[in-house]
């Protein structure tokens, strides 16, 4: 049977944070969680786009319990400030959705290659800083949005910033591999905790992220071509968000699972993943290095 948003259970009494909730998959995710009664925090980098998304959400779900909080995953000071407003109030669901894709080389506020810095390190730090709040919520979940394009490359632990040389699609693939390795290690570390860590991918969905690369390179023709391909081949943002909503709310989600649509326009199904994303030694090493780079230390695990 096909799983849809109608299958989301009642979420009253549960609190969620969705990064990058101002548009695309993040907005749909936040809206559907709110529709089912969850309190939703839209964690967005832009005040203007965040306020626009929040206003739209209230138009579509008048009874929603939702708020906007600013978060720039490319700035660890912003990540710390966001988490600092939370204290240890229970957080039932963290959706690590925001990201950048195939952009020209740039660096975050802390000097990391932007795709690795935003897609992995920002979310690694955010999850760690909110770990106490997640621990305080029965049945908490951390859902991280990766991509089938993790198949473009394994991480190089000695070149995490993809400097030898910089190739934008390789850097993107590595950052999405890092998402899977992060979730694998988080799942291993929380076997004795009431917290589930899972990863998803949206397939090829028609979102602003797919236009980001052409915009960043100031290629109007490339953006027009991307829009045409989106209209022809991509599934909608509504469909692309279904794996995230499934992993966030369905009762049969397994730790360290990787879920996505079966086809570009198809239904949700477990997704094959690159063998390098199942390497526990690399996952542990990436975790250690990520703690060193971000300065965010998670509680010690049994393993």
TrEMBL record:
<keyword id="KW-0560">Oxidoreductase</keyword>
<comment type="similarity">
    <text>Belongs to the short-chain dehydrogenases/reductases (SDR) family.</text>
</comment>
<feature type="domain" description="Ketoreductase">
    <location>
        <begin position="14"/>
        <end position="157"/>
    </location>
</feature>
<protein>
    <submittedName>
        <fullName>SDR family NAD(P)-dependent oxidoreductase</fullName>
    </submittedName>
</protein>
<dbReference type="InterPro" id="IPR036291">
    <property type="entry name" value="NAD(P)-bd_dom_sf"/>
</dbReference>
<dbReference type="InterPro" id="IPR057326">
    <property type="entry name" value="KR_dom"/>
</dbReference>
<dbReference type="Pfam" id="PF00106">
    <property type="entry name" value="adh_short"/>
</dbReference>
<dbReference type="InterPro" id="IPR002347">
    <property type="entry name" value="SDR_fam"/>
</dbReference>
<dbReference type="GO" id="GO:0016491">
    <property type="term" value="F:oxidoreductase activity"/>
</dbReference>
């Amino acid at each position: 049977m096909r799983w849809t948003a109608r299958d989301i259970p009642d979420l009253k009494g549960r609190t969620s944070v969705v990064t990058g909730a101002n548009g695309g998959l993040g907005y749909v995710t936040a809206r559907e969680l709110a529709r089912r009664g969850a309190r939703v925090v839209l964690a967005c980098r832009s005040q203007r786009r965040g306020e626009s998304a929040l206003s739209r959400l209230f138009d579509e779900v008048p009874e929603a319990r939702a708020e906007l909080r600013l978060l720039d995953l490319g700035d660890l000071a912003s990540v710390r400030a966001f988490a600092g407003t939370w204290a240890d109030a229970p957080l039932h669901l963290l959706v690590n959705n925001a990201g950048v894709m195939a952009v020209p080389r740039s660096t975050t506020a802390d000097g990391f290659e932007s795709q690795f810095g935003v897609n992995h390190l920002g979310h690694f730090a955010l999850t760690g800083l909110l770990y106490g709040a997640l621990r305080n919520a029965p049945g908490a979940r951390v859902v991280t949005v990766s991509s089938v394009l993790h198949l473009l490359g394994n991480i190089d632990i000695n070149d995490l910033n993809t400097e030898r040389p910089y190739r934008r699609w390789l850097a993107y693939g590595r950052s999405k591999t890092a998402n899977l390795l992060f979730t694998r290690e988080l799942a291993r570390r929380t076997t004795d905790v009431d917290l589930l860590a899972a990863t998803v991918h949206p397939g090829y969905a028609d979102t602003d992220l797919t236009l980001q690369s052409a915009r960043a390179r100031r290629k109007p023709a490339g953006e027009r071509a991307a829009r045409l391909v989106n209209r022809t081949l991509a599934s909608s943002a509504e469909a692309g968000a279904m794996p995230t909503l499934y992993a966030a709310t369905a009762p049969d989600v397994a730790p360290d699972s990787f879920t996505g649509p079966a086809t570009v326009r198809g239904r949700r199904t477990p997704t094959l993943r690159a063998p390098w994303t199942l390497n526990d030694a690399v996952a542990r090493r990436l975790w250690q290095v990520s703690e060193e780079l971000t300065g965010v230390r998670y509680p010690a695990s049994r393993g």
